[in-house]
Specification:
Elements: E1 3-9, H1 16-29, E2 34-37, E3 40-42, E4 46-48, E5 54-56, H2 57-65, E6 77-81, E7 86-91, E8 94-100, H3 101-123, E9 128-132, H4 150-156, E10 160-165, H5 171-180, H6 184-189, E11 190-198, H7 202-216, E12 220-225, E13 250-255, E14 260-261, H8 267-270, E15 275-280, E16 291-294, E17 296-297, H9 300-309, H10 312-321, E18 326-329, H11 331-335, E19 339-342, E20 350-353, E21 360-377, E22 391-404, E23 412-416, E24 419-423, E25 425-427, E26 430-433, H12 444-455, H13 467-485, H14 488-495
Parallel strand pairs: 1-9, 1-10, 2-9, 3-6, 10-11, 11-12, 13-15, 13-16, 16-18, 18-26, 19-21
Antiparallel strand pairs: 4-5, 6-7, 7-8, 14-17, 19-20, 21-22, 21-23, 23-24, 25-26
Helix pairs in contact: 1-2, 1-13, 5-7
Length: about 500
């Protein structure tokens, strides 16, 4: 049976996901079979496994760091917010319905066996399980039937390391306060503290570390320096989404929808030289774009209303009329069509006029499509003609079916398992597709960048890169950074249950 260690944080985005990934990589480098685990995850960035099941993107990233394939057992409960108080609940990779926060908390006791079964199944196959918490363990109003932090530590009998983010300020107070708000039994599970995202002179921090250890009775296991790393982000607190200024020759603008999902779709574009990707939530931020992207969303109809009421749709149409190309991914593709219908009330019911730039119509249904898919761009005429024949790889996660009107040009041919389907639509300077991960690698993003540069009268060239090798190099950089900052011998003693 595997030995567990759990990474909890004083708050969301303290660095739990990245530190868990670092430990997965380090343990793998040290010769252990290691797997990640997060009992309950709330995120709009998700991943589809080879068998068509859905889990949090962070656990897929951690599995990759551990050198293993993502497995739905690594995240048995995934919550995908659909509004201010409700979420789609996904259990063992499959949606079971939409619940309000109150209803979900009433169901949590019934989900405990699901979490336990997933963990025990993983633990039987690996040497070490790196468990990630969610939010903060000091959310004392949610202590009863907790399935995110100390409840999972107890269920798995796991020691805990607690992470605080010094970059946002107040790290000593957040670490001390978190420890002291826990019960004595919960405090006993915390075996050490980690300070993350430190910038500056460590010698100036040391007196504070000594005082923190004295006040909490917990050792500081390390101070991890701030370092920019190209790893998948998990949620809406990502620094990527605050980027408002383009840093490249080419300016690609992604509309920051209120329920934006899978924004990791655009990480591949960010890696291209002289290509800047920024996010816009106001009409004036759309100007001067070389390409406008409508991304995926968990609430297509609500976000289409926002697009219209905020003035973003009017600005988008004006820029399109002036020649700016537009790409829609998943929910963004649906919005670009002529009409969206929700007869079964999957998104609240009703019908909305689409943006009207693609000759397609979408009907929402209860069945959810989740599949990995590979494709090849069909022979295209017009603006996107240079993308013809490019191979693509990615995945689909969507509710509803989109139908092209008679004579409409599909974008690509997809192989979804053993099924071949036509995907997306192209009309003039507008392109839509259901495929997430379209820009992650291969020739298509490079051809697109060259096309956008040509439109500006520029020449764009870049050497081909291997995205898999690039990702693996980032995991090695992360492991090296964390190895140099943490007391690894003490981490191993914690794993072995030593005091």
């Amino acid at each position: 049976m595997a030995k567990p260690i759990m990474v909890q944080g004083t708050c969301s985005n303290a660095g739990k996901s990245v530190i868990a990934a670092a430990l997965c990589r380090i343990f793998r480098q040290d010769g252990y079979r290691v797997a990640p685990f997060k009992a309950q995850n709330m995120a709009l960035n998700s991943f589809v496994t080879a068998d068509g099941l859905e889990l949090g993107r962070a656990q897929a990233m951690q599995a990759e760091a551990a050198g293993i394939a993502p497995d739905v057992r690594m995240n048995p409960i995934l919550l995908k917010p659909t509004g201010e108080t409700g979420s789609q609940v996904i259990v063992n990779g499959k949606p079971v319905g939409v619940r309000s926060a109150k209803d979900y908390w009433g169901d949590r006791r019934a989900l405990r066996p699901v979490v336990q079964a997933a963990y025990e199944s993983l633990a039987a196959e690996y040497d070490i399980i790196v468990i990630e918490g969610a939010g903060s363990p000091a959310e004392i109003n949610l202590r009863q039937d907790d399935l995110a932090n100390m409840g999972v530590a107890e269920l798995t009998d796991s020691p805990v390391v607690l992470v605080g983010d010094i970059d946002r300020g107040g790290v000593f107070a957040s670490l001390y306060g978190t420890v002291k708000l826990l019960t004595s039994a919960e405090q006993a599970r915390i075996r050490g503290l980690i300070i993350n995202k430190f910038r500056g002179d460590l010698s100036l921090l040391r007196p504070g570390l000594t005082m923190l250890e004295e006040l909490t009775g917990k050792p500081v296991l390390g101070v991890i320096p701030y370092a920019p790393l190209d790893l998948d982000d998990e949620d809406s607190l990502s620094e990527r989404l605050t980027q408002r200024v383009s840093r490249g020759l080419l300016d690609i603008v992604v509309v920051r929808l209120p329920h934006l999902s899978n924004f990791t779709d655009f990480s591949g574009l960010e890696r291209l030289p002289e290509v800047g990707v920024r996010y816009a939530s106001k009409p004036e931020e759309l100007t001067r774009a070389d390409l406008l992207i409508l991304p995926g969303t968990k609430s297509t109809l609500a976000d289409l209303k926002w697009l219209r009421e905020s003035g973003m749709e009017t600005c988008l149409l004006r820029l399109h009329e002036a020649g700016t190309p537009v790409v829609g991914i998943c929910g963004g593709y649906q919005m670009l069509g002529a009409r969206l219908c929700d007869p079964e009330g999957q998104e609240g019911g009703g019908e909305l006029r689409g943006v009207g730039l693609l000759p397609v119509e979408t009907v929402f249904r209860a069945e959810k499509t989740t599949a990995q898919a590979r494709g090849r761009v069909l022979p295209l005429e017009g603006f996107f003609g240079s993308l013809s024949g490019a191979e693509t790889a990615g995945y689909e996660i969507h509710m509803g079916e989109t139908v092209r009107m008679e004579g409409a040009q599909p974008f690509q041919q997809l192989l979804r398992g053993t099924e071949t389907v036509a995907d997306g639509c192209v009309s003039g300077r507008v392109l839509g597709t259901y495929q997430h991960g379209l820009f992650d690698g291969g020739e298509l993003p490079r051809r697109l960048a060259a096309l956008l540069a040509e439109r500006r009268g520029l020449t764009w060239e870049a050497p081909a890169v291997d995205p898999e090798r690039q990702r693996q190099a980032e995991y090695d950089k992360l492991a090296e950074l964390v190895r140099g900052a943490l007391d690894l011998p003490q981490i191993y003693r914690i794993l072995e249950g030593e005091q």
